[in-house]
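As a warm-up, study this chain.
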Amino acid sequence: MGPEDILTTYRIEAARWARERNRSLWERPALAACVADRAAPLEVLDLGCGSGQPIAQWFIARGDRVCGVDGAPEMLAECAARVPEVTRIEADMRALDLRRRFDILLAFNSFFHLSMDDQRAMFPIFAAHAAPEARLLFTSGPAEGEAIGQVGDSPVYHASLAPDEYRALLAAHGFEVVWFRPEDAELKGHSVWLARFTGA
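Now compare it with the structure written out below.
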């Protein structure tokens, strides 16, 4: 089981994942930080949008416009059924080139399924899609390493760079770290980054 199996896994597990996905909105503190002092409508790019619940749905309820990207068509079908207001694009985030810029970039519980090298290669893609002052929200591990988790009945790969490397990659691509909350209890033990785009 490795990062090359991620899309196949989520294609197999899409219906169950969408049905069982925690929709309590424990992510709300992180989402709210993205939009603090910013009025809707914002342009939101949700990378690995899955079923659209609850994250894309939260932005839609605010009046924002969400573009959801997922490499698993079965996930996009779940999103279409559950949050039809989301504009859906079937694509692999690792090769994304929408030629559009967004106010909010999300890679929440999706980015950490990529290999370490693929994660490094995502930062120019983030920058290419970031509007001035855009916010980038993504999850990682608390430290460098790899792990195998579980989605439904399938094993699933996770990886993380070291926090210092994420800081260096963000800075090199025009992002300023707002905060990093490793294994944060308020966020159900997730390690979450929020950064602001200061580049061109």
